[in-house]
Design brief:
Blueprint (H helix, E strand, L loop, with lengths): L22 E4 L5 H11 L10 E6 L12 H10 L2 E7 L3 H9 L3 E2 L13 E6 L2 E6 L5 E4 L7 E5 L3 E4 L8 E4 L3 E7 L2 E4 L9 E6 L3 E4 L2 E4 L13 E6 L2 E6 L1
Parallel strand pairs: 1-2, 2-3, 3-4, 7-9, 8-10, 9-11, 10-12, 11-13, 12-14
Antiparallel strand pairs: 5-6, 5-8, 13-16, 14-15, 16-17
Helix pairs in contact: 1-2
Length: about 240
């Protein structure tokens, strides 16, 4: 019987590291029913807001609460909204243990971002993530069209887009968003809670606009004086204002 000892052993899989986009849900209460109700209300006007996105539960703001979290009920509610809860972070030892019992894994805590002389923008196209140099501190510039399914996030910076943001594309910034072209997809400014952030576009016809978590979808038609025209989006207290430029 012949035995081949010179050939390379073949395997049926490869193990590689991966970086995937995850939606972070920051809890401000331990009441699972209230959280589920709030989430359902936020997506009521846009049932396609989530598309089976993986979800990370951030417990940093409630880690000192004595009231336990019903993770099983919360996971079930999130799955009913077309998301996939997979991980949890920032909780107390008891909260993390309860989350693990509900099938959630522990994700590493992330320290607050610090200003760097040169940062990087992450451009996510479905499951492909590319690091793009930022031309200047505090500002991310994109000079190519963004197609449906593409997402750009300017972490800790303003975002300037010089080309069309197509329907189904998403632009996110911790600061302001400037689109010097038609804005037809989703624009989310002040992603980390900056209520002074604004969205500017030379042709406003978005699928969704949001500032510091307060949003408006195309289910509510824009007024004639701003639809398809130069306009800005800003907050006045907790009211989202859309005004002509």
């Amino acid at each position: 019987m012949a035995v081949d000892t010179a050939g390379t052993t073949r395997t049926h899989l490869d193990l590689k590291s991966a970086q995937l986009p995850v939606v972070a849900v920051v809890l401000k209460t331990t009441d699972a029913a209230a959280i589920a109700s709030d989430l359902a209300a936020r997506v009521a006007d846009d049932p396609e807001f989530f598309d089976n996105d993986p979800v990370l539960l951030d417990l940093t703001a409630v880690q000192g609460e004595a009231r336990p979290i019903d993770f099983a009920a919360l996971v079930q509610a999130l799955r009913g909204l077309r998301t996939q809860p997979v991980a949890v972070r920032g909780g107390s030892a008891e909260q993390m243990q309860a989350a693990h019992a509900a099938g959630l894994i522990a994700a590493p805590d992330v320290a607050p971002a610090r200003a760097q002389p040169r940062e990087a923008m992450r451009e996510i196209v479905r499951e492909v993530q590319v690091e793009v140099p930022v031309p200047a501190p505090g500002t991310v510039v994109v000079d190519k069209p963004l197609r449906s399914g593409q997402q750009v996030y300017a972490r800790g910076a303003d975002l300037v887009v010089m080309a069309v943001v197509s329907f189904g594309a998403e632009v996110i910034a911790d600061g302001n968003i400037h689109v010097y072209a038609p804005l037809r997809g989703r624009a989310i400014a002040g992603a980390r809670g900056d209520t002074s952030a604004r969205i500017f576009s030379t042709c406003l016809e978005p699928q969704l606009v949001s500032v510091a978590g307060i949003y408006r979808t195309t289910e509510t038609e824009l007024p004639d004086n701003v639809r398809g025209k130069p306009a800005q989006v800003r907050l006045d207290g907790e009211k989202l204002l859309i005004e002509p430029l």
